[in-house]
Amino acid sequence: MNNLKRVFAVLLTALTLAATLPPSRAVTQDEIDTLITQASGIQEEQAALEQEISAYTLNISAALDQKTLLDAQIAQIEEEVAALEAQIKDCQQRICVTEVELADAEMKEAQQYDLFCQRVRAIEEQGRVNCWMILLHATSFVDFLSRLDFVNEIMQSDQRVMDDLRALQAEIAGKQKELETERLELETTNLLCQDKQAELDAQREAANQLIIDLQANRAEAEASRDILAGEAERIQEEIVRLSDELERQEEEARIRAEEAAAEAYRRMRERVAAIDDFTISYGDGGYIWPVNSRRITSGFGPRVSPGGIGSTNHKGIDIGGVGYGTAVHAAKGGTVIISQYSSSYGNFVVVSHGSGNTTLYAHMSTRLVEAGQVVEQGDIVGLTGSTGHSTGPHLHFEITENGTRINPLIYLGDYGQ
Predict the structure, then answer these.
(1) CA-CA distance, 391 to 306, in Å (whole number)?
(2) Domain range for residue 14?
(3) Is residue 255, in this structure, part of any structural domain at all?
């Protein structure tokens, strides 16, 4: 029952969460994470139940082995009890035979004793004269001695018969006593065996009950495991459904965001173009000035680090005379290969013009193009600012040709300090 209580607690939690999730609503990752956590908890509970089931199976196997041993012991005891009962029955029969023999010996002794007594009484009634008459009728001394021996022999014969009967009676009585002792010993051993059999029967009954209890517990654990398996599958299906729904919503949000960003970019370009009095001014090499200002605040090459944060070997030019939000134009048409933020350049964009020729625009407040985007010469790529290692709003501008950065002023004329 404890397993079912734990399972019902888990299911109650899962069902409570499921009841709070309407079929049509915005899905959050937290809700999916909560379901994943619950699924993980159910998996742990399933693993614990599997261990319990394995333990129950081992215990059942051990109990069955113990029961088999008890059955063998009980069978052996039953054989011993049956053998003892047969021996007791045989002993009882022999006792009965001995009792008959003893009764017969006692009867013969009594008969002989009666015969002896009759003879004695006859002698007493006839008196001693009869004996003397027997002796006096002797024809000679030899005949007298013979007659005297005959009388003595009769008396001795009676005595021997009596003695033999008493000896036989004593022997039979001893045999009867031995048989009674043997019977008592067999009955005592039989009682001990029966007690042992009763003890083993009780142990076997306990083993049977233990097996029944273990099988019931294992069945309960298996039922709980199956319930959890079904709930885990349901939760997994819900996770997949919510994940798909979240992915769909995120895709819709991404599309809306891209559309909004594109619309915002379009509007910003229109707004910047409306207020920007940018005039395309070509220099040598086909480059144009990226901003309207022509003021150079830091030239190309060695310099004193501005504010202690700029480089001392300047690889581009800094164009000042701009504030925050001045439009930055592509000096040449090409493909945007970098549009990101770095700790030194801040917001910067790199446009590739092919054959190792690139232009770089740095320290901008806003980037308005993405990597992979194709721009025409004069298209707005961002707005000026002071991000990264910068001491004020300006545009850091670089030109690279054949993989080497060169002084942009070689191509850009009409500038001032």
Answers:
(1) 7
(2) 2-244
(3) no
Question: How many folded domains does the chain comprise?
Answer: 2
Average pLDDT, integer, range 285-307? 82
Tokens encoding 31: 């809700």
> 200 and 58 in one domain?
yes
Question: What predicted TM-score, i.e. pTM, was given to this entire model?
Answer: 0.40
Encode pLDDT of 11-59 as tens digits.
555 545 444 445 556 878 888 888 888 888 888 888 888 898 899 899 9
- Alpha-carbon dihedral sign for residues 204, 205, 210, 212: positive
Confidence band, pLDDT 50/70/90 cuts, at residue 291: very high
Q: Write the single-letter amino acid at 9.
A: A
Own/partner long-range contacts of 386-389 (Cβ < 8 Å, ≥24 apart): 386/324, 386/346, 387/341, 387/346, 387/347, 387/363, 388/341, 388/342, 388/343, 388/344, 388/345, 388/346, 388/347, 388/348, 388/362, 388/363, 389/309, 389/310, 389/343, 389/344, 389/345, 389/346
In a domain, residue 416? The reply is: no
Residue 186 lies in a domain: yes
Instruction: Evaluate whether residue 261 is within a structural domain.
Output: no
Q: What is the dihedral of CA 407, 410, 416, 417, to 10 degrees?
A: 30
